[in-house]
Amino acid sequence: MKQDVEGKVGTYYSSDNTGNAYKTCWGDGNIHFGYFPHMEHSSKPKIGFEKAAEAMTDLMIETGEISKGSKVLDLGSGYGKPACDVAAKSQAEVWGVDLSGRQVDAANARAKKLGLDNLAHFVKGSFTDLPKEILEQEATFTHAWAQVSWCHAHSNIDDILKEAFKSLKKGGKLVVNDFLGTDEKVSDNTKEHVWKRLHFNALLGPNAWKKKVEQAGFEIKKYMDLSKHLNHGYALLAEEADKHKFKSEDGALLADNYRVSSEVCGQGQIGMNLCIAIKS
After folding, report:
1. What letter would DSSP give residue 253?
2. What burial class does residue 84 get, using C-beta atoms within 10 Å of its C-beta: 0-12 exposed, 13-18 middle, 19+ buried?
3. What is residue 67's DSSP assignment?
4. Are 152 and 9 in contact (CB under 8 A)?
5. Is 208 exposed, middle or buried (0-12, 13-18, 19+ CB in 10 A)?
6. In this predicted structure, what is the pLDDT of residue 10?
7. How many C-beta atoms lie closer than 10 Å to residue 58's C-beta?
8. Interacting residues of 246 by C-beta distance below 8 A, sequence separation 6+
9. How far apart are CA 74 and CA 38, in angstroms?
């Protein structure tokens, strides 16, 4: 089952259709959701989706206390923009792992273009079974980082956490922003417009998710419910996708899927978090 899920996810993120939609609607290089400061502080200016994605990265750097001398493992690094931003803003060393060879190549090219290839490195592989380039550095990382990537493998989250635990030094930190489901019954609408489109076969609710982290040997130090940011983000994505008439793999309008995703988020069917946890 794990190979089947990873195969579908790798194909999905390597397709031209997905790549074009993400680049247009989400921004160049970011394939994660954003943090909208005005939703927490009314004095803050409103920002668009792409800037909010960068604000999420900034929030994670600050909350995770990543700085020069840190060594970060990005589990599901995508096109590499967040990892390169971490390297540029903190001068930390960053290693990214991703299933998509296309995205790994793009991430290494980005790092080289930005003059960050001495700090940011990307390899192809699974975060449920880390590649040798990472295993050779076992227990040397200060931080294990993820931005809305674990959700594709919640059925294998025990494996993800085991690999993250092995990679970290004692006292090392998880800095994870994840896409969540519900601890209650999943609606048919959610399965049709969220699970189907994103190839989910499982999606943990917040309580189940936190329990898994703690069972893996981590102590949760900070947990933030950012679901209202996910809701707002999907509403913005729906507007942008509608302009370009992008379609999902099954032919349905992507804007419609995004709108329903925003609706079910408001109903508590899906959500988003930011968690800082320590390897004990």
Report:
1. B
2. buried
3. -
4. yes
5. middle
6. 46
7. 14
8. 17, 20, 21, 24, 25, 253, 254, 255
9. 27
* H or E segment to which residue 131 belongs: none
Q: Which residues pair with 273 in a beta bridge?
A: 225
**62-85 pLDDT, tens digit each:** 999 999 999 999 999 999 999 999
Tell me the two tokens of residue 167.
């990679």
- Residue 93 has φ and ψ, to the nearest 5°, of -85, 135
Q: How far apart are CA 267 and CA 262, in angstroms?
A: 9
Q: Looking up tokens 């991430």, which residue turns up? A: 107
**Token pair for 226:** 């950012």
Q: Which residues contact 104 (CB under 8 A, 6 or more apart)?
A: 77, 96, 98, 122, 123, 124
Residue found by looking up tokens 């519900």 in the block: 182
Taking the C-alpha atoms of residue 267 and residue 189, their distance in angstroms, rounded to an integer, is 11
280 residues of the chain, pLDDT tens digit each = 555 655 554 444 444 455 688 788 888 778 899 999 999 999 999 999 999 999 999 999 999 999 999 999 999 999 999 999 999 999 999 999 999 999 999 999 999 999 999 999 999 999 999 999 999 999 999 999 999 999 999 999 999 999 999 999 999 999 999 999 999 999 999 999 999 989 999 999 999 999 999 999 999 999 999 999 999 999 999 999 999 999 888 888 999 999 999 999 999 999 999 999 999 8
d(CA 183, CA 231): 18
Q: Does residue 127 sit in helix, strand or coil?
A: coil
Both tokens of 112, joined, read 């080289």
Pairing of strands 71-75, 168-177: unpaired
Residues in the chain: 280
End-to-end CA distance of the chain: 31
- Please, are residues 38 and 44 in contact by the beta-carbon 8 Å criterion? yes
